[in-house]
Structure formats: C-alpha cells, structure tokens
Amino acid sequence: MSPRAKRIAQGAVTIGFFAAVVWLLGDELRALDPHEILAVLRDLSSAQVACALALTGACYAVVASYDRLASRHARVRLPAALGFAIAFVSYAFNFNVGAIVGALGFRYRLYTRAGLDAKQIATIAAFSIVTNWCGCLSVLGAMLIADPSVLREGFGLSATACRLLGGLALAPVAAYLLATRIRTEPVQIRGNRYPIPDCRVALAQVALASAYWLLVPVVLHVLRPTGAAIDYSQLVVAYGLAAIGGIVIRVPAGLGVIEAVFLESFRDRVGAGPILGMLIAWRAVFLLAPLGVAAIVLALLESRGGARVRAAGARSGRAGAAGARRAGRRRSRA
Predict the structure, then answer these.
(1) pLDDT tens digits for range 185-195
(2) Rounded distance, CA 263 to CA 280, Å?
(3) How confident is the model at residue 137 (pLDDT cuts 50, 70, 90)?
(4) Would you kindly state where each structural domain of the chain is located, as residue ranges?
C-alpha cells in the first residue's frame, strides 16, 4: 500500500471511529449538562491538584528512564541530566502531538545534537517502544485476570472472556522474555544489526514500564469526582484499553479515544459529566502542564546545542586562521 493510500485509510478509520462514538453516545452527549463538568472542576481541591502534579512528575521520571536503560543497552554514554532532559521533552511532545513528532522527531534532533548517530538513536527509540508496550500489556493482562469488572459492566463480556483477553495481552510479553532468553544473535533490519537484550535487561524493561502503567491511573484516581464509584484497578484497565485503542485510532493525545473508552466503561455508574470533568482535569495536569515545562527545557537544550556549535565553529575558524598564518610565514621564508 502506498503512503498516500495509508494516509487515506487512516483518515477514514479515524472519521469512522468518531462517527461511531457520536452515534453510540449521541443520547448521552445530547443530554450532557456542561454544569456537571464545571462542578467537577470546581470541586477539585488544591491538595488534589498538587498531589496529581507530584504524581505526574514521578510518571515522567519513570518514563524518561526508558531511554536511560536504552542508552545502556546501546552502549551510549550521556550525562544523566542531558539524557533525562531529552527523554522528557520527547515524551511530553509524544503524549500531546503524537509519536512522529515526539518519539521520533525530537529524539532524532536532540540526540543528534548530543553526538549520537542514526543507528544509536534508532536502537534507543526501538528499545523504549518495546519497553513501554511490555509494561502496558503486562499490567493490562494482569488486571484483566484479577479484576475483569470494567469489561463485564461496561462492555457486557463474561468474566471468562475477560480473563482470556488478559492472557492474550500477556502472551506477547512472555514471548519477548523467552526470545531474550534463547536468542543471542542480533536482529537485522534494513541492513542494520540491532542487539537483543539479555533476559535480565528484558525483565528490567517489564518492571520499569509496569511501574509507569500502574502510576498513571493513580493520577486519575486522585482527580476522580468526589463519591465516584470507580476503583483503582478499573482505572488501570480502562487506561490500558484506551492505549490499545490509540494504536488503531492515531489522533494526538488520544483525543476522543480515551473519552470513548472511559465513558463506555463508567457512564452507567458515574455519569458522562463527571467522567469528562475528570478527564479534562487529567489532561490539564498530565499532558498540558508537562508540555509547558518541556517547551522551556527544549529551548534550553537548543540554546545549549547552539552555543556548542558556535563554539566549535569559532574554534575551527581560529584554527583555520592560524593555519593560514603559518602557511603565509612558510611562503615568505621560502
């Protein structure tokens, strides 16, 4: 399929998804009272917001650690502060505007300015992507087996079907761990060879990413409406399902995908207004606030890189001038 056809197909799927959401939730959305959303936002205390911001900082520290672990795997030596700053900027923009700009575009630009080559950057990006999805599938699978209530109540599936889906989610992670145990040869992609991590590193990937996928729902739990009958385990499952849906429906920040999954999961118990109010607060705290900080960090990284490039240019200019003077003296002596 040509790139143009892929874009057309993706656009059609996205439009179809939003049309389906509007059709499925049409009655609910028409009956939605905006004052319910505003009430949820007004009821948030400063302590809740402060706690959610602190937890958000912890989430980004964990997710930025993906790249630090990846750098070790790729045998890349970067100062810890610089490595965390690049990863933080990449993920903040990734979560808000999409993987092409954040996960790939900013990574390539910032790591290149830090002296890494294309193969090293590709290794770090691929390792971090695998890390992230190992955590998502591990947490989602385990929670579906332990507490299938979200799919039972929101989507009408039986407990047995939910647990089978949980096992299905865990299968790729188990296959990956097995592959790292038995395979020692690098994987070859487009002529480049990428080393497979050993089993200990793979287990570290799963543990690190699982911590992230367990921590993000804590932010949602802190921001949930007062008296809302939503358990933490149910938020974990709903957030994981929304992430899976985001693979198919690629829209910036999962806009509409997260809302659709959460509304379908909890609207019968909590109502659409409180759910949307909670998600608006979460987007402000977890997405927009870090994006503002990331923009400042990006400006600092760019100025740092620009200063380094200018200094290198000045050094090369001085060296060139000195060489010209030496050459002139040699010609005059001759």
Answers:
(1) 777 766 667 77
(2) 13
(3) very high
(4) 36-299
Residue 52, pLDDT score: 97
48-57, 119-128, 308-317: least confident range: 308-317
Distance, CA of 236 to CA of 150 (rounded, Å): 10
Residues paired with residue 194 on neighbouring β-strands, in sequence order: 187
Between these two residues, 180 and 11, which has the higher pLDDT value? 180
Q: What's the half-sphere exposure (Cβ side, CA atoms, 13 Å) at 199?
A: 8
Long-range contacts, stretch 223-228, CB < 8 angstroms, 24+ apart: 223/44, 223/48, 223/52, 223/278, 223/281, 223/282, 223/285, 224/278, 225/40, 225/43, 225/270, 225/274, 225/277, 225/278, 226/43, 228/266, 228/269, 228/270, 228/274, 228/278
Distance (Å, whole) CA 177 – CA 60: 25
Distance of alpha carbon 294 from alpha carbon 88, whole angstroms? 7
Q: What DSSP designation does 106 have?
A: I
Query: Over the stretch 228-274, which tens digit does the pLDDT of each residue have?
Result: 888 999 999 999 999 998 877 767 667 778 888 898 888 778 888 88
Name residue 187's beta-bridge partners.
194
The C-alpha angle with vertex 109 and arms to 246 and 245, in degrees rounded to 5, equals 5
The Cα–Cα gap between 121 and 281 comes to 34
Q: How many CB atoms within 10 Å of residue 48?
A: 16
Distance, CA of 140 to CA of 241 (rounded, Å):
8
